[in-house]
Design goal:
The structure is a single chain. The chain is 81% helix and 0% strand. It is mainly α. The longest helix is centred in the first third of the chain and has 24 residues. It is elongated and about 40 Å long. The protein starts with a helix and ends with a helix.
């Protein structure tokens, strides 16, 4: 099937980036409620949440 070889690699890359985002969220100086909200967004929407965090998340 077309693309089967890249699906697993792409999933692993997204997983690694999501873990990185969660670590950065936890280490940020944001309020605990905002940290929890960002973590939930990243976990529920792995790709979109990662993009949103990168653009608007706590620094």
């Amino acid at each position: 099937m077309f693309g089967d070889g890249y699906t697993g690699i792409l999933g692993i890359i997204i997983l690694i980036l999501d873990i990185y985002a969660i670590i950065r969220i936890v280490q940020s100086g944001a309020e605990p409620l905002w940290k929890a909200l960002w973590i939930v967004i990243v976990l529920l929407l792995p790709v979109l949440g990662l993009i949103l965090w990168f653009l608007f998340g706590p620094k």
